[in-house]
Amino acid sequence: MTSDMATKTPVTPRRSVVETGKRALWRGVRRWESALVVVLIGALIFGSSERPNFLSPMNFFYTGLNMGEIAIMALPLTLIIMTGEIDLSVASMLGLSGTVMGVLFSNGWPIWLAMAAALVVGALGGTLNGVLVAKVGLPSIAVTIGTLTLFRGIAVILLAPRTITGFPLSLTKIGVVPIQGTQLAYSTAIFLVMAVVAGVVLHATPLGRALVAIGLQPEAAQFAGIRVNRIKIWLYVVSGVVCAFAGILLTLKNSSVSYDAGTGLELNVVAIVLFGGVSIFGGRGTVIGVVLAVAIVGALQQALTQMNVQPEVQNIVIGVLLLISVVIPNSGEAIRRIRDRARRHASTPSPRNSPNA
Amino acid sequence: MSVITAPAPAPTDRPVSRLESLLRARELGIALAIIVVFGLTTLNNHAFAHAASIQQLLNGAALIALLGVGETLVIVTRNVDLSVGSVVGLSAYIIGDLFKHNHDMSVVLGFVIAIAVGAAIGAINGLVTTVARVPSLVVTLAMLYIVRGFDGVIVNGKTIDPDSIPTAFTAVGYRTLFGIPWLAIIVAVVVAAVGYAMRSFRSSRDLYAIGSNPDAAELAGIPAGRRVFTAFLISGALAGLAGALFLALHAQIDVSGGSGYELTVVAAVVVGGVAIFGGSGTVLGAALGAVLLNTINQALVASKVSSFWNGAIAGGLLLAAIAFDRWLSLRVARSLQSAEGAHRDL
Amino acid sequence: MHTVRTVRRKVTLALAVTLVCTVAACSSSSTTTTNPTAAATATTVKKGLTVYFIPKDTQNPYEVIADQGGQRALQELGGKVVISSGTADTAAAQIPSIQAAIQAHAAAIVIAGNDPSALCPSLNQAAQAGIKIVAFDSDIACASSPSHLFINQANTEKIGTSQIDLLAKEIGSKGEIAILSAAASATNQNAWIGYMKQQLKKYPNMKLVTTVYGNDDPATSLTVLQGLLSAYPNLRGIISPTTVGIATAAQYLSTHKSLLSHLTLTGLGLPSKMKSYVHDGTVKEFELWNPDNLGYLAGYAAAGLASGSASLQAGSKFDAGKLNSYTVLAPSGTTGPSVVLGPPLVFNASNVDKFKF
């Protein structure tokens, strides 16, 4: 997380700032993404070893259906975390936008207008986050915990204790049938399209390079002319709109909405982004890693549920994966650091022993 | 714009500066806010000011305030501990189960075991954060899942019912001393002890240094790893204690005990003036923040406002508190700059 | 003489016959599944059935007991039960379990719905795959499909009205009362509260001042209870139709006995949790039913429907093992075909020790 009070990199830099060229980037992250591919294959083998029809198209459809909204929310969060910030209000915005759409629809608004209003709410919420973080300069973890509570609180006021149902059948079918001719759930397809867009933006546009620069060295980025504040505000607005969109999808998928829609999902989304190799400090990560993480977590959960493994054990698995995903890269660095320190001690006398100390 | 703040100087070095008086103002501000909310509600509903309801206010905030003490230590060092809720649930269930099968286990032993369970988790958090240099947000988030999952596996659908727990133990949950609930006294003692330590001992003041400027702290020779590890250890131990108190207060526990506490605690601590980026804040402020949030919750019900408004008000309050703290710290930074302008170019 | 043409004609004819037979078979089986209120066609339950029990979550103690009852039932019938759900009390956590049931070709699903309508799309899919749907504890409200049988623990109206009657008896039918409920979105809670409000009209001197929500969490229940007590110092009675709420309130009152001089507590509680409070005089009477029997009945109903020996036809009977035989009630209001376990059981000092749940 950034701070304008002090630099956050330790005395020995974690990564060389010079290596921001595309080739160096790929070299650095390629290792993690390759590991993820191996894990994904392992998960699929694991799943099909227990259930012969695990690799069936129907299962693919279900997995995509279940992960759809979480996956979609993970994309803007990836960009936000790349800049060294965080957004914990994603699931609450999902719930709030679904609630707004439901309440308006039940009051007679045409469904498309209700959906548009939900998206506007998402933009407003995102603007609030962005202004507080970027303009006022408040720490994003605290701000988004506040807006997490605020958005959910507004949803409760608007809707509790009712549930809204009766959404148009033509739209709610996205929860039951895949896209005609395929076994792709609608939300999966939307996610894949958005992932491609996010990937292109992050890895092949000046904006993407700017995001990486902001994450690695915020002050240098500012001095290099990157409009850090404006970019951050826009990232939060995009996050708000995308989460609102996910809320619309979830509501239509379930053909109903209640005030507690999506409660608790934010930690799942953060866990997936981090597991996908995005560094919590910012400046490092790929969209493909996040896509792989979505696939792995989805496949694992599907496999474990079908094997009737207790959901509590599934939580342990997610937690352990998350832990491993950060310990392994860091342990590489830790070993390097210990080696460096040993080398330094061997070659130079310690200052305490110096006669001039 | 980057400003390098010096670590807070030792208290004996210089007379009370504007820095300290501004910090003190923060706790006073919260105390004032509590009184205002209390007063407004009483005006509306006289029953709110009775001894019984003040006892309830203290009792209701006690557990969160206790968790807030540990969380403050961790946040001051620029870390966070999200696993506290799961630890409360786990330690409460473990001693609940022990009581169920050994009805004459001593109350003190129950507390000791609960604290030990919490300390063990805290130690894991601390080790992974300091040795493996993993960001605490990730570690404690992972531990939140793992501990809750582990709790679910050992609970396995059972519950601990009131008659499994010795009355000597649940007495801690409701007995009073001169009208003040034991629960509140225990928490107040912890707050006082830790607060005193934070102001007076060098090793605890190091926590502030680590939080304000990790690099400067390391260069100054502070063993940051050890300090941070201790902060997590204490946070875990206090969460274990909170688990024991949870069991004493509610006399029942199932798998969902403590769920969601982590965000409430962070909110209380931030409202209480602890900067989320570390380097400043006191445990007294955190405890007062917990009391303020609980007072508002109960004031809403007492004022016959639908409890549905709780969340929105809490969220708005949190945002206001963060913004206020930001304004305050900017003022502090500016005053430090002007007072120590000569040293800025070091 | 067999020319190529003759062979080709024979093959085409064979294929056509097969096709027609398949279509005929398909259409005939679909008529049986699309006519839900057709009479029972078999007389005994098939062996080897797999029934998926999907409780609200895997740890709710009340549901755990009910699931055990279901396991007992299927054991007696030579089948088996798979218990599958999530840890969060949300519909999203139950959908993967429904999918697992479809994948596993389960004979029936017995579900306690976390949300009255969000599960409908997935359950509809299950029904189309030939799985029989039974709801218990918390009903689902899916307008036209899927058709399902609701195993009601007791007559919904009676659950609501009898609690008011119990309280009225104890406080002399006079005074302010409040309700301490669970989650604001729980279908069963809201249904019972609705009937309570209706029944209150019979007691003009009793007034419901408010309903507070404890979310089945002891800490939240305690907070709202304390707020309630300070907001309404003249409160005479509290009804808590949730086992966690009533236990929390009882613990508080038993440690603040002075409140009992003017306050009475009743509601729905588990005898195992409440017996110490009955013995120390905190609570005089409360009610519930046997959750084990509820699950047992649901198990028999599910197996019967899957075998064709039970049907949704109003007035039809089916065998429920040790509970003898039950009659299906006609749909009424928003509830579809249902079966009622029995009247609520009132617990007091004379019988509270006799039960294991």
Molecular structure report:
The complex is a heterotrimer of chains A (357), B (346) and C (357). Chain A has a domain of 197 residues. In chain A, 71% of the residues lie in helices and 2% in strands. Chain A is built from 13 helices and two strands; from the N terminus they run αααααβαααααβααα. Chain A has a two-stranded antiparallel sheet with strand order 1-2. With 346 residues, chain B is mainly alpha-helical. Chain B contains 13 helices and two strands. In chain B, β1 and β2 form a beta hairpin. In chain B, α4 runs antiparallel to α10. Chain B starts with 17 loop residues before the first helix and ends in a 7-residue tail after the last helix. The model of chain B has no long low-confidence stretch (mean pLDDT 85). With 357 residues, chain C is α/β, with parallel strands linked by helices. Chain C folds into two domains: 155 residues, Response regulator (Rossmann fold, 3-Layer(aba) Sandwich); 133 residues, 3-Layer(aba) Sandwich (Rossmann fold), CATH 3.40.50. In chain C, 42% of the residues lie in helices and 17% in strands. In chain C, β3, α4 and β4 form a beta-alpha-beta unit. The longest helix of chain C is centred in the N-terminal third of the chain and has 31 residues. Chain C is elongated. Classes of the chains: A mainly alpha (357), B mainly alpha (346), C alpha/beta (357). The interface between A and B is large, with 57 and 58 residues.
Q: Output the structural class of chain A.
A: mainly alpha
- The portion of residues assigned to helices of chain A is over 70%
Provide the β-strand percentage band of chain A.
under 5%
β-sheet strand percentage of chain B: under 5%
Distance between the termini of chain A: 37 Å
Q: What is the β-strand count of chain A?
A: 2
User: Strands of the biggest beta sheet of chain B: in what spatial order?
Assistant: 1-2
The CATH class of chain B: Mainly Alpha
